[in-house]
User: Which sequence fits this backbone?
């Protein structure tokens, strides 16, 4: 009698897994294949696993275009000061790697906007620490970190004084994703700005490109440039219709939703994202998302049926026409450490869960091509 053996396939691409030919399809390290524990884990071929890591670090972000590359090259050549504006709500560490590579060599001041969406009980230092960790992780040591919101009495004069000293008479390039709040900041700054130079404020094509950039003269020989926002290609915002974008954008302070999930439970965020507890003990989670996103706990086994049903009935909002079958989602699994620390798993642009890591296995389903990110908790 022959021996029977289960033929293993990659959970993502379906290639038959093998550990003999590293250059060929379906290659996986031998020990992973040998130690496979049926029902407890899924296996990915090396190629898909690398791809997964890419997703988790946001490297799927569309490459920056030639014009932006040229502008950033100029910034590097002139040793400019970078102000990197990030939206604290949607930000989950997916800093565009192409941009990171360029501005790593420069002094970077980070401004986290949308502070007003977080409870006043959360300290600025908590948010600052989170930003510092995410930037440091990708090799940027911020020269300064500031968090601010819409309604804050932002002391623009004080802020400008700080950047004026830091820039050491060099230009400032203000960069950040679409909608991160760059123009809002510039407008605040302009309220206090007096032009004593021979130049005017202009929005025109940056030299040698067809990209519109606002330039504000600081002295006769130095400027602030506001670059157009980088694409939201890896954000759920970039995957859904306008009406859905409105629902997933927080307008009021973000509420904390408390849930306890056990093995076999899933939490649905409208029809846009699902967090499933695949294995592990009962876990208390906090969930953060915009007020327009409705939440429901269901059995993971019912998720596929629920997607179909919710598309028809629209009982849990938001529902996107573009994300209507399981094929429109990516599906990844995190095996958490057992460090007893608060960790977050975020779906960029949609929301995040926060919980104490105790070796759980959490699966996340989210619109295809969006980024997910696991990190130490933002609000720990
Ligand atoms: N609640 C809140 N909303 C903000 C904040 N900053 C900006 N916004 C809002 O976010 C949206 C985008 O802000 P902008 O300042 O235009 O963003 P931007 O970075 O210039 O965007 P692009 O130029 O498209 O890259 C606007 O609706 C702003 O009102 C903030 O701190 N809190
Ligand atoms: Mg703008």
Assistant:
């Amino acid at each position: 009698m022959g021996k029977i053996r289960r033929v293993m396939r990659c959970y993502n691409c379906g290639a038959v897994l093998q550990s003999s030919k590293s250059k060929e399809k379906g290659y996986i390290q031998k020990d992973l294949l040998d130690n496979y524990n049926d029902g407890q884990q899924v296996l990915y071929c090396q190629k898909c696993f690398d791809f997964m890591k890419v997703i988790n670090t946001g490297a799927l972000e569309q490459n920056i275009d030639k014009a932006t590359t040229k502008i950033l090259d100029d910034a590097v050549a002139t040793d400019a000061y970078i102000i990197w504006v990030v939206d604290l709500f949607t930000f989950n560490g997916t800093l565009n790697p192409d941009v990171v590579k360029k501005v790593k060599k420069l002094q970077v001041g980070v401004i986290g906007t949308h502070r007003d969406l977080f409870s006043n009980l959360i300290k600025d230092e908590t948010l600052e620490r989170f930003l510092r960790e995410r930037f440091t992780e990708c090799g940027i040591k911020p020269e300064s970190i500031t968090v601010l919101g819409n309604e804050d009495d932002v002391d623009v004069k004080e802020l400008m004084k700080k950047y004026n000293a830091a820039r050491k008479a060099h230009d400032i390039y203000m960069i950040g994703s679409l909608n991160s709040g760059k123009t809002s900041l510039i407008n605040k700054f302009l309220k206090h700005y007096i032009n004593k130079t021979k130049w005017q404020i202009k929005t025109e094509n940056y030299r040698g490109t067809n990209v519109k950039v606002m330039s504000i003269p600081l002295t006769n020989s130095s400027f602030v440039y506001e670059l157009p926002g980088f694409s939201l290609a890896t954000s759920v915002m970039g995957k859904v219709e306008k009406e859905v974008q409105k629902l997933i954008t927080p307008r009021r302070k973000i509420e904390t939703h408390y849930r306890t999930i056990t093995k076999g439970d899933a939490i649905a965020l409208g029809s846009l994202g699902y967090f499933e507890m695949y294995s592990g003990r009962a876990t208390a989670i906090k969930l953060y998302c915009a007020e327009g996103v409705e939440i429901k706990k269901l059995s993971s086994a019912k998720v596929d049926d629920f997607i179909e049903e919710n598309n028809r009935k629209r009982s849990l909002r938001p529902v996107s026409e573009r994300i209507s079958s399981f094929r429109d989602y990516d599906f990844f699994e995190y095996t958490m450490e057992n460090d007893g620390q608060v960790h977050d798993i975020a779906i960029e642009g949609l929301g995040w869960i926060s919980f104490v890591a105790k070796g759980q296995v959490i699966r996340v389903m989210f619109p295809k091509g969006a980024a997910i990110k696991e990190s130490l908790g933002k609000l720990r």
